[in-house]
Amino acid sequence: MALIEVDGLVKHYRVRKPGRSVRRLFTRHSELKEAVRGIDLRVDAGEVVGYLGPNGAGKSTTIKCLCGIMAPDAGRIRVAGLDPSRRRLELARRIGVVFGQKTALWWDLPVTESFELLRAIYDVPRERHRRRLDELTALLGLDEFAHVPVRQLSLGQRVRSDLAAALLHDPQVLFLDEPTIGLDAAAKSGVRRFVREIRARGVAVLLTTHDLGDIEELCDRIVILDRGSVLFEGSVDEALGRYAPHSRVIVEFSRDVQGTIEVPFADSLHRRDDRQAEIVFKRAEETAAAVTRHLLDAYPVRDLRITEPSIEDVVKSLYEELGDRAGGAEPARG
Ligand SMILES: Nc1ncnc2c1ncn2[C@@H]1O[C@H](COP(=O)(O)OP(=O)(O)OP(=O)(O)O)[C@@H](O)[C@H]1O
Protein backbone atom coordinates (compact mmCIF):
# COMPACT_ATOMS: atom_id res chain seq x y z
CA MET A 1 0.00 0.00 0.00
CA ALA A 2 1.46 3.38 -1.03
CA LEU A 3 1.70 5.79 1.90
CA ILE A 4 3.60 8.43 -0.05
CA GLU A 5 2.50 9.08 -3.63
CA VAL A 6 3.85 11.97 -5.66
CA ASP A 7 3.07 12.56 -9.34
CA GLY A 8 4.67 15.34 -11.34
CA LEU A 9 5.60 17.56 -8.39
CA VAL A 10 6.78 21.02 -9.42
CA LYS A 11 7.89 23.76 -7.03
CA HIS A 12 9.37 27.17 -7.82
CA TYR A 13 10.90 29.79 -5.59
CA ARG A 14 10.74 33.47 -6.34
CA VAL A 15 14.29 34.77 -6.15
CA ARG A 16 15.79 38.22 -6.50
CA LYS A 17 17.39 38.96 -9.83
CA PRO A 18 21.09 39.64 -9.49
CA GLY A 19 22.63 42.95 -10.56
CA ARG A 20 21.99 46.61 -9.87
CA SER A 21 20.65 48.79 -12.61
CA VAL A 22 18.43 51.83 -12.87
CA ARG A 23 15.93 49.73 -14.83
CA ARG A 24 15.53 47.45 -11.82
CA LEU A 25 14.03 50.38 -9.94
CA PHE A 26 11.11 50.30 -12.35
CA THR A 27 10.76 46.61 -13.15
CA ARG A 28 10.07 43.42 -11.17
CA HIS A 29 13.21 42.42 -9.33
CA SER A 30 12.49 38.74 -9.03
CA GLU A 31 12.32 35.66 -11.19
CA LEU A 32 11.11 32.13 -10.70
CA LYS A 33 13.61 29.43 -9.90
CA GLU A 34 12.53 25.85 -10.51
CA ALA A 35 13.64 23.83 -7.46
CA VAL A 36 11.66 20.67 -8.24
CA ARG A 37 10.69 19.82 -11.81
CA GLY A 38 8.17 17.03 -12.19
CA ILE A 39 9.12 14.46 -9.55
CA ASP A 40 7.33 11.10 -9.21
CA LEU A 41 7.84 9.19 -5.98
CA ARG A 42 6.20 6.33 -4.16
CA VAL A 43 6.90 4.79 -0.76
CA ASP A 44 4.94 1.77 0.41
CA ALA A 45 4.09 0.72 3.95
CA GLY A 46 7.09 -1.10 5.45
CA GLU A 47 9.55 0.35 2.95
CA VAL A 48 12.60 2.59 3.48
CA VAL A 49 13.34 4.75 0.45
CA GLY A 50 16.57 6.76 0.32
CA TYR A 51 16.03 10.21 -1.13
CA LEU A 52 19.47 11.24 -2.30
CA GLY A 53 21.23 13.89 -4.30
CA PRO A 54 23.89 16.56 -4.08
CA ASN A 55 23.32 19.84 -2.26
CA GLY A 56 20.59 21.89 -3.87
CA ALA A 57 19.06 18.93 -5.73
CA GLY A 58 15.58 19.58 -4.34
CA LYS A 59 15.28 17.10 -1.44
CA SER A 60 14.25 19.55 1.28
CA THR A 61 11.82 21.27 -1.06
CA THR A 62 10.12 17.94 -1.79
CA ILE A 63 9.94 17.07 1.90
CA LYS A 64 8.47 20.48 2.75
CA CYS A 65 5.74 19.83 0.17
CA LEU A 66 5.15 16.32 1.55
CA CYS A 67 4.75 17.66 5.10
CA GLY A 68 2.39 20.42 3.96
CA ILE A 69 4.81 23.22 4.91
CA MET A 70 4.71 24.38 1.27
CA ALA A 71 2.06 24.01 -1.40
CA PRO A 72 3.26 22.58 -4.73
CA ASP A 73 2.95 24.67 -7.89
CA ALA A 74 1.88 21.61 -9.85
CA GLY A 75 1.47 17.88 -9.35
CA ARG A 76 -0.42 15.60 -7.05
CA ILE A 77 0.70 14.53 -3.56
CA ARG A 78 -0.87 12.07 -1.16
CA VAL A 79 0.71 11.25 2.18
CA ALA A 80 -1.10 8.66 4.28
CA GLY A 81 -4.07 9.28 1.98
CA LEU A 82 -4.16 13.06 2.54
CA ASP A 83 -3.34 16.08 0.39
CA PRO A 84 -0.67 17.68 2.64
CA SER A 85 -1.18 21.34 1.80
CA ARG A 86 -4.97 21.14 2.30
CA ARG A 87 -5.11 18.82 5.32
CA ARG A 88 -2.02 19.83 7.22
CA LEU A 89 -3.39 19.41 10.74
CA GLU A 90 -4.82 15.96 10.09
CA LEU A 91 -1.59 15.03 8.34
CA ALA A 92 0.45 15.97 11.42
CA ARG A 93 -1.16 13.04 13.27
CA ARG A 94 -0.16 10.59 10.58
CA ILE A 95 3.47 11.59 10.03
CA GLY A 96 6.62 11.88 12.12
CA VAL A 97 9.62 14.01 11.24
CA VAL A 98 13.19 13.82 12.55
CA PHE A 99 15.92 16.25 11.58
CA GLY A 100 19.30 14.95 12.73
CA GLN A 101 20.61 18.49 12.98
CA LYS A 102 17.71 20.03 14.92
CA THR A 103 15.66 18.89 17.85
CA ALA A 104 11.88 19.04 18.06
CA LEU A 105 12.11 18.79 21.84
CA TRP A 106 12.01 21.57 24.40
CA TRP A 107 15.57 22.47 25.21
CA ASP A 108 15.10 23.17 28.93
CA LEU A 109 12.67 20.39 29.74
CA PRO A 110 13.49 16.83 30.75
CA VAL A 111 12.80 14.37 27.96
CA THR A 112 9.74 12.89 29.69
CA GLU A 113 8.11 16.32 30.00
CA SER A 114 8.64 16.98 26.29
CA PHE A 115 6.90 13.68 25.61
CA GLU A 116 4.02 14.68 27.90
CA LEU A 117 3.63 17.98 26.00
CA LEU A 118 3.58 16.09 22.71
CA ARG A 119 0.91 13.78 24.14
CA ALA A 120 -1.23 16.81 24.88
CA ILE A 121 -0.57 18.39 21.46
CA TYR A 122 -1.51 15.22 19.60
CA ASP A 123 -4.29 14.51 22.06
CA VAL A 124 -3.20 10.90 22.57
CA PRO A 125 -5.21 9.08 25.29
CA ARG A 126 -3.07 8.62 28.43
CA GLU A 127 -3.15 4.84 28.48
CA ARG A 128 -2.21 4.55 24.81
CA HIS A 129 0.60 7.08 25.32
CA ARG A 130 1.98 5.15 28.29
CA ARG A 131 2.02 1.86 26.35
CA ARG A 132 3.67 3.47 23.36
CA LEU A 133 6.24 5.26 25.53
CA ASP A 134 7.12 2.01 27.34
CA GLU A 135 7.63 0.33 23.99
CA LEU A 136 9.81 3.14 22.59
CA THR A 137 11.77 3.40 25.86
CA ALA A 138 12.65 -0.28 25.60
CA LEU A 139 13.55 -0.08 21.90
CA LEU A 140 15.66 3.07 22.21
CA GLY A 141 17.03 2.64 25.73
CA LEU A 142 15.62 5.98 26.92
CA ASP A 143 15.52 5.01 30.61
CA GLU A 144 18.99 6.19 31.53
CA PHE A 145 18.34 9.83 30.58
CA ALA A 146 14.55 10.23 30.72
CA HIS A 147 14.76 12.88 33.46
CA VAL A 148 17.69 14.84 32.05
CA PRO A 149 16.99 18.22 30.36
CA VAL A 150 17.40 17.99 26.59
CA ARG A 151 20.23 20.55 26.60
CA GLN A 152 22.37 18.16 28.68
CA LEU A 153 21.94 15.13 26.43
CA SER A 154 24.71 13.77 24.23
CA LEU A 155 23.96 13.90 20.49
CA GLY A 156 23.21 10.17 20.42
CA GLN A 157 20.77 10.46 23.35
CA ARG A 158 19.17 13.51 21.74
CA VAL A 159 18.60 11.72 18.42
CA ARG A 160 17.12 8.69 20.23
CA SER A 161 14.77 11.06 22.10
CA ASP A 162 13.78 12.78 18.83
CA LEU A 163 13.03 9.42 17.21
CA ALA A 164 10.78 8.54 20.14
CA ALA A 165 9.09 11.97 19.97
CA ALA A 166 8.39 11.53 16.25
CA LEU A 167 6.81 8.11 16.78
CA LEU A 168 4.85 8.63 20.01
CA HIS A 169 1.60 9.34 18.18
CA ASP A 170 2.10 6.18 16.10
CA PRO A 171 2.41 7.75 12.63
CA GLN A 172 2.18 5.77 9.39
CA VAL A 173 4.91 7.77 7.67
CA LEU A 174 8.31 8.85 8.97
CA PHE A 175 10.53 11.49 7.36
CA LEU A 176 14.14 11.16 8.44
CA ASP A 177 16.57 13.88 7.48
CA GLU A 178 20.22 12.92 8.15
CA PRO A 179 19.31 10.96 11.30
CA THR A 180 22.84 9.65 11.90
CA ILE A 181 24.81 12.82 11.20
CA GLY A 182 27.59 13.33 13.74
CA LEU A 183 26.92 10.05 15.57
CA ASP A 184 29.65 7.57 16.47
CA ALA A 185 29.61 4.06 15.00
CA ALA A 186 27.73 2.47 17.92
CA ALA A 187 25.08 5.20 18.02
CA LYS A 188 24.62 4.97 14.23
CA SER A 189 24.08 1.27 14.41
CA GLY A 190 21.50 1.76 17.22
CA VAL A 191 19.56 4.26 15.08
CA ARG A 192 19.68 1.94 12.06
CA ARG A 193 18.46 -1.02 14.13
CA PHE A 194 15.56 1.11 15.32
CA VAL A 195 14.66 2.21 11.77
CA ARG A 196 14.60 -1.46 10.68
CA GLU A 197 12.28 -2.21 13.59
CA ILE A 198 9.96 0.63 12.58
CA ARG A 199 9.97 -0.59 8.98
CA ALA A 200 9.04 -4.09 10.15
CA ARG A 201 5.99 -2.56 11.84
CA GLY A 202 4.77 -1.20 8.51
CA VAL A 203 5.83 2.45 8.71
CA ALA A 204 6.81 4.04 5.37
CA VAL A 205 10.16 5.80 5.77
CA LEU A 206 11.59 8.48 3.48
CA LEU A 207 15.24 8.88 4.39
CA THR A 208 17.41 11.81 3.29
CA THR A 209 21.05 11.09 3.96
CA HIS A 210 24.57 11.59 2.73
CA ASP A 211 25.69 8.65 4.91
CA LEU A 212 26.60 5.71 2.70
CA GLY A 213 26.21 3.24 5.55
CA ASP A 214 22.61 4.41 6.08
CA ILE A 215 21.93 3.81 2.39
CA GLU A 216 23.54 0.38 2.28
CA GLU A 217 22.06 -0.87 5.52
CA LEU A 218 18.58 0.60 5.35
CA CYS A 219 17.30 1.43 1.90
CA ASP A 220 15.02 -0.94 0.00
CA ARG A 221 15.15 1.53 -2.85
CA ILE A 222 16.94 4.75 -3.62
CA VAL A 223 15.82 7.77 -5.59
CA ILE A 224 18.64 10.03 -6.76
CA LEU A 225 17.82 13.62 -7.64
CA ASP A 226 19.76 16.19 -9.57
CA ARG A 227 18.63 19.77 -10.15
CA GLY A 228 15.05 19.01 -9.29
CA SER A 229 14.63 15.87 -11.43
CA VAL A 230 14.82 12.16 -10.67
CA LEU A 231 18.00 10.80 -12.18
CA PHE A 232 17.82 7.23 -10.92
CA GLU A 233 15.27 5.12 -9.12
CA GLY A 234 15.87 1.51 -8.14
CA SER A 235 17.59 -0.76 -5.63
CA VAL A 236 21.15 -0.26 -4.39
CA ASP A 237 22.15 -3.32 -6.48
CA GLU A 238 20.64 -1.78 -9.59
CA ALA A 239 22.53 1.46 -8.91
CA LEU A 240 25.74 -0.56 -8.53
CA GLY A 241 25.06 -2.31 -11.85
CA ARG A 242 24.46 0.98 -13.63
CA TYR A 243 27.04 3.30 -12.10
CA ALA A 244 29.74 0.98 -10.72
CA PRO A 245 29.61 -2.08 -13.00
CA HIS A 246 33.23 -3.19 -12.51
CA SER A 247 34.82 -5.48 -9.96
CA ARG A 248 38.55 -6.05 -9.48
CA VAL A 249 40.78 -8.99 -8.71
CA ILE A 250 44.23 -8.16 -7.40
CA VAL A 251 46.58 -11.07 -7.84
CA GLU A 252 50.02 -11.62 -6.36
CA PHE A 253 52.27 -14.19 -8.03
CA SER A 254 54.63 -16.53 -6.19
CA ARG A 255 57.37 -15.80 -8.75
CA ASP A 256 58.00 -13.19 -11.43
CA VAL A 257 55.55 -13.32 -14.33
CA GLN A 258 56.78 -11.29 -17.26
CA GLY A 259 55.00 -10.10 -20.36
CA THR A 260 51.26 -9.83 -20.87
CA ILE A 261 48.73 -11.73 -18.82
CA GLU A 262 45.76 -13.17 -20.64
CA VAL A 263 42.44 -13.07 -18.80
CA PRO A 264 39.31 -13.60 -20.87
CA PHE A 265 36.62 -10.93 -20.36
CA ALA A 266 39.00 -8.55 -18.56
CA ASP A 267 38.00 -4.99 -19.30
CA SER A 268 41.44 -3.75 -18.37
CA LEU A 269 44.55 -5.06 -16.77
CA HIS A 270 47.15 -3.16 -14.77
CA ARG A 271 50.62 -4.41 -13.84
CA ARG A 272 52.38 -2.83 -10.88
CA ASP A 273 55.43 -5.07 -11.28
CA ASP A 274 56.26 -8.66 -12.26
CA ARG A 275 54.71 -9.97 -9.04
CA GLN A 276 51.33 -8.21 -9.13
CA ALA A 277 48.43 -7.54 -11.47
CA GLU A 278 45.00 -5.96 -11.17
CA ILE A 279 42.24 -7.31 -13.39
CA VAL A 280 39.14 -5.15 -13.90
CA PHE A 281 36.04 -6.88 -15.27
CA LYS A 282 32.33 -6.21 -15.74
CA ARG A 283 30.23 -8.20 -13.27
CA ALA A 284 27.47 -8.52 -15.86
CA GLU A 285 29.87 -10.38 -18.19
CA GLU A 286 31.97 -12.46 -15.84
CA THR A 287 31.99 -13.68 -12.26
CA ALA A 288 34.84 -13.15 -9.83
CA ALA A 289 34.89 -16.96 -9.40
CA ALA A 290 35.57 -17.50 -13.12
CA VAL A 291 38.33 -14.88 -13.22
CA THR A 292 39.89 -16.39 -10.08
CA ARG A 293 39.67 -19.93 -11.50
CA HIS A 294 41.37 -18.83 -14.71
CA LEU A 295 44.20 -17.13 -12.81
CA LEU A 296 44.75 -20.15 -10.54
CA ASP A 297 44.87 -22.49 -13.56
CA ALA A 298 47.15 -20.34 -15.70
CA TYR A 299 49.56 -18.59 -13.30
CA PRO A 300 51.58 -19.24 -10.14
CA VAL A 301 49.25 -17.46 -7.70
CA ARG A 302 50.41 -16.74 -4.15
CA ASP A 303 47.42 -14.69 -3.09
CA LEU A 304 44.41 -12.90 -4.56
CA ARG A 305 41.89 -10.36 -3.39
CA ILE A 306 38.52 -9.47 -4.89
CA THR A 307 37.18 -5.94 -4.44
CA GLU A 308 33.54 -5.20 -5.13
CA PRO A 309 32.34 -1.63 -5.56
CA SER A 310 30.20 -0.05 -2.87
CA ILE A 311 27.50 2.59 -2.88
CA GLU A 312 30.37 5.04 -2.28
CA ASP A 313 31.66 4.31 -5.81
CA VAL A 314 28.15 4.88 -7.19
CA VAL A 315 27.78 8.21 -5.46
CA LYS A 316 31.30 9.30 -6.42
CA SER A 317 30.89 8.43 -10.09
CA LEU A 318 27.39 9.85 -10.27
CA TYR A 319 28.15 13.13 -8.54
CA GLU A 320 31.30 13.57 -10.64
CA GLU A 321 29.17 13.03 -13.73
CA LEU A 322 26.61 15.53 -12.44
CA GLY A 323 29.35 18.08 -11.82
CA ASP A 324 30.35 17.83 -15.50
CA ARG A 325 26.86 18.05 -16.83
CA ALA A 326 24.81 21.02 -17.86
CA GLY A 327 21.03 21.32 -17.89
CA GLY A 328 18.42 18.74 -16.88
CA ALA A 329 18.74 14.99 -16.93
CA GLU A 330 16.61 12.13 -18.22
CA PRO A 331 15.40 9.90 -15.40
CA ALA A 332 16.82 6.38 -15.32
CA ARG A 333 14.90 3.50 -13.79
CA GLY A 334 16.83 0.57 -12.38
N1 LIG B 1 13.73 29.62 0.24
C1 LIG B 1 14.34 29.51 -0.95
N2 LIG B 1 14.35 30.55 -1.81
C2 LIG B 1 14.95 30.45 -3.01
N3 LIG B 1 15.56 29.32 -3.47
C3 LIG B 1 15.57 28.27 -2.67
C4 LIG B 1 14.97 28.29 -1.36
N4 LIG B 1 15.13 27.08 -0.80
C5 LIG B 1 15.81 26.34 -1.69
N5 LIG B 1 16.08 27.04 -2.81
C6 LIG B 1 16.78 26.57 -4.01
O1 LIG B 1 16.07 25.45 -4.53
C7 LIG B 1 16.97 24.42 -4.94
C8 LIG B 1 16.66 23.14 -4.18
O2 LIG B 1 16.98 23.35 -2.81
P1 LIG B 1 16.74 22.26 -1.67
O3 LIG B 1 17.00 22.93 -0.36
O4 LIG B 1 15.41 21.64 -1.87
O5 LIG B 1 17.89 21.22 -2.01
P2 LIG B 1 18.44 19.99 -1.14
O6 LIG B 1 18.56 18.84 -2.08
O7 LIG B 1 17.61 19.79 0.07
O8 LIG B 1 19.88 20.48 -0.73
P3 LIG B 1 20.77 20.16 0.60
O9 LIG B 1 21.34 18.77 0.43
O10 LIG B 1 21.84 21.19 0.51
O11 LIG B 1 19.89 20.33 1.79
C9 LIG B 1 18.36 24.96 -4.71
O12 LIG B 1 18.84 25.48 -5.93
C10 LIG B 1 18.18 26.05 -3.68
O13 LIG B 1 19.13 27.06 -3.85
TrEMBL record:
Key words, A-Z: Antibiotic resistance, ATP-binding, Nucleotide-binding, Transport
InterPro entries membership: AAA+_ATPase, ABC_transporter-like_ATP-bd, ABC_transporter_ATP-binding, P-loop_NTPase
Keyword Nucleotide-binding among record annotations: yes
Domain ABC transporter: 4-252
SUPFAM superfamilies per record: P-loop containing nucleoside triphosphate hydrolases
Species annotation: Glycomyces artemisiae
An MF annotation (GO) of this entry: ATP hydrolysis activity
GO biological process, one term: response to antibiotic
Protein's recorded name: ABC-2 type transport system ATP-binding protein
GO cellular component, one term: plasma membrane
PANTHER family: ABC TRANSPORTER ATP-BINDING PROTEIN, ABC-TRANSPORT PROTEIN, ATP-BINDING COMPONENT
Localization in the cell: Cell membrane
Claim: Glycoprotein is one of the keywords in the record: no
Topology within the bilayer: Peripheral membrane protein
